[in-house]
Amino acid sequence: MDAMPKRRKTAGASRKLIEDLVAASRILAKHEVLDAYGHVSARSDGRPDRFLMSRSLAPALVTAADLMELDAGSEPLPGDKRKAFIERYIHGEIYRARPEAKAIVHSHSAAVIPYGVTRTKLRPIYHMGSFLWSGTPVFDIRKVKRENDLLVRDRHLGEALAASLGSCACVLMRGHGMTVVGESIPEAVFRAIYTQMNARLQSQAGLLEGPIEFLSDIEGRLSTAANRGTLERPWELWKRETLAKK
Ligand SMILES: [Zn+2]
User: Fold this and answer.
1) Residue 41's beta-bridge partner residues?
2) Predicted pLDDT of residue 9
3) From ligand 1's centre to the CA of 177, what distance in Å?
4) Who contacts 33 (Cβ-Cβ below 8 Å, separation ≥6)?
5) Model confidence at 244, in pLDDT bands (50, 70, 90)?
6) pLDDT mean over 87-100
7) pLDDT reported for residue 243
């Protein structure tokens, strides 16, 4: 078992950010976006060049004491000997490439896997998935590193993933999962949950008589803005549902 630090190693971040990040981890586990694997992080509001994420732990079990603060190179601060997630470089390199990104979710959601291994593009099929209008590029790790274990286990791979993501909200990862970005913790959680739902619905619609009518780009853009204005509603609900059980 990992040793618990006497003091939290997240001194630079606000209590609200810490509470929201713990809630996000539990919410994403409850919605089965994360299972024993996957993780959510938040950019520190005290030190924007750093970010917070749990030590290597199943997301449903995360508490504030499990959070670690990682530097711009995705490494734990000196003195924090706890085991960090291998794939923390996903987060660190996206925060570096996308200054507006405040939270990131990396998931192995089964629903999105087909869209990373076929020619079928994941596209916004309904208004809750409208943020996907900006594109869902597929990161193929083999193009960066031929001999690989699918994991983004260093800065070089993280940088390549961030380059694939570009300015999109979601990047699919071939044979692995997805990573989504938000400008707040609630937005990243919302996008992760609804990317998974959009993938399920698109797969269902694909079985019916086509072609599928997706949202147009303008619908996607306008609906994304509208959803941003109502994020607090699902966030409050999800927090209450998730944290009340504990
Ligand atoms: Zn992964």
Assistant:
1) 53, 104
2) 62
3) 7
4) 105, 107, 109, 192, 193, 196
5) confident
6) 98
7) 81
Q: How far is the CA of 211 from the centre of ligand 1 (A)?
A: 32
Catalytic positions are: 87
Distance 232 CA to ligand 1 centre (A): 28
pTM for the full model? 0.94
pLDDT tens for residues 169-224?
999 999 999 999 999 999 999 999 999 999 999 999 999 999 999 999 999 999 99
Torsion sign over Cα 106, 107, 108, 110: negative
Which structural domains are found in the chain, ordered by start? 15-243 (3.40.225.10)
Joined tokens for residue 148: 């690989």
- Distance from the CA of 64 to the center of ligand 1, in angstroms? 22
Give DSSP secondary structure letters for the chain: -PPPPSS-B-TTS-HHHHHHHHHHHHHHHHTTSSSSS-EEEEE-SS-TT-EEEEBSS-GGG--GGGEEEE-TTS-BPTT--SPBPTTHHHHHHHHHH-TT--EEEEE--GGGHHHHHSSPPP---SGGGGGGGG---EE-GGGT-SS--S---SHHHHHHHHHHHTT-SEEEETTTEEEEEESSHHHHHHHHHHHHHHHHHHHHHTTSSS---PPPHHHHHHHHHHHHTTTHHHHHHHHHHHHTT-
DSSP 204-242: HHTTSSS---PPPHHHHHHHHHHHHTTTHHHHHHHHHHH
